[in-house]
Amino acid sequence: MKRLLSGITPSGDGSLHIGNYLGAVRQFIELAKTNETFLMVADLHALTTIQDKAMLQKNTETLILNELALLMGELSPSTSSGLPNITFFRQSDVAEHTELQSILNNVTPLGLLKRAHAYKDKLAGDVTEEDINVGLFSYPMLMAADILLYKPDLVPVGKDQKQHIEITRDIAGRFNKIYPTSLKLRGASKKNVFKLPEPYIPEEVAVVLGTDGKRKMSKSLGNIISIFEDEEIIRKQVMSTYTDPTRIHASDPGHIEGNMVFTYLDFFGDPSTSLGTRNAKVDELKEAYRKGKVGDIEVKNYLYESLLKYFDNARQTYRELVSKPEIIKKILRDGTEKARAVAGQTMTEVREAVGLVNRYSLG
Ligand code: TYM
After folding, report:
1. Can you tell me which atom of ligand 1 is nearest the CA of 20?
2. Residue 83 has pLDDT above 50, yes or no
């Protein structure tokens, strides 16, 4: 059994779209079936862009509800059975994240962070260093702390987070080199404090394109398909999805490649509920589309119905959870307790390794 850890930031409005699902949550669900799983709501990360109290509160609540509904909709027989395989918690409930970040600050070269895409992309726009807060600049370090505290083997994420995992590995390597440690804690002689984590990024969902067919699906670009919105909104999002611009009439031969409706159908077309399963209905529609025997509206309607069916359990679980805050609190309470225990143990090792423990320590 391996250990995995991942997180989602409650940015945008905190809700999840099918890009988050395919790029991250679907992997959480598959991996959680056979591995020890830590999942965090990265609320401290959201502070880099959200400086409105009510918005942060709302976003965090929305993300917790969305993510739990997806996880429980697929993994739990009922909401009352909780979330047995997963340690689910909020980053800000485990103080060790910021404590470790403080220590990692000192083994991380400035240049490493200056090369981070998120920071460089910001500067490439019409933003100057004066407009960027230090939190955004040191975002990769907080993320490194998030990961290293739990010593995971795998970090399932979308491709946009890959560089952050590489930075994490770099920082962990530097720390281990500067502070080789003989841990008396477990009777081991020379042992590294940190494990170098591996990113887990399945190629077919590394970057899920949005309904415009051009850019990564992202709330801020307005090219998403929602999971928990009202049916009418989801229908509109599906109807606005990019298909084949060269096709004028339904009787013209159509293209499948780059046609986002078919890209999404490959994942959600009935009965493809497990990873990579092909299905006859989608293949039939593709064939008909290529020959000009089926119109865009018909395939879009099929995508809309497939999405509602695919997420039916999750949407039902969502409605149930809204009226049962005590279930959510229990999951968070249990998750936080477990996360604190693991993070606390790592911090004991870190404090010892760097020399913060001495004969006057309070113990
Ligand atoms: P965030 O909140 O931006 O995104 C959550 C996850 O969804 C993936 N994702 C996508 N994957 C493929 N195609 C898309 N269109 C798409 N949109 C989003 C992201 O890659 C991510 O995996 N910094 C992280 C959160 C975080 C974290 C961590 C992750 C904080 N601490 C520790 C892993 C480990 C973030 O902001 O992801």
Report:
1. 7
2. yes
Say if residue 151 is in the same domain as residue 63. yes
Nearest-angstrom CA–CA distance, 168 and 286: 42
Greater model confidence, 185 or 8: 8
CA 143 – CA 138 distance, rounded (Å): 9
- Judgement on whether residues 329 and 300 belong to the same structural domain of the protein: no
At 123-166, the pLDDT tens digits run: 888 889 998 999 999 999 999 999 999 999 999 999 999 999 99
The answer as to whether 92 is a domain residue is: yes
What is the full DSSP assignment across 117-159? HHHHHHHHTT--GGGS-HHHHTHHHHHHHHHHTT--SEEE--G
pTM (whole model) above 0.90: yes
Please check whether residues 164 and 23 belong to one and the same domain. yes
Q: Whose CA is nearest to atom 24 of ligand 1?
A: 8
Q: What is the CA radius of gyration of the chain?
A: 22
Does residue 93 sit within a domain? Answer: yes
Q: Is the CB of 225 under 6 A from ligand 1?
A: no
Ligand 1 near 158 CB (within 6 A):
yes
Q: Mean pLDDT in the chain?
A: 93
Ligand 1, residue 206: give the atom nearest the CA: 12
pLDDT higher than 90, residue 22:
yes
- Per-residue pLDDT tens for 238-259? 999 999 888 888 888 999 999 9
Q: Does residue 20 line the site of ligand 1, with CB under 6 A?
A: yes
Task: Tell me, using a 6 A CB cutoff, whether residue 7 lines ligand 1.
Answer: yes
pLDDT of residue 187: 57
Q: Are residues 306 and 330 in the same domain?
A: no
Give the C-alpha separation, 23 to 221, whole Å: 17
Q: Which domain holds residue 263?
A: 228-310
Separation of alpha carbons 344 and 351, rounded Å? 10
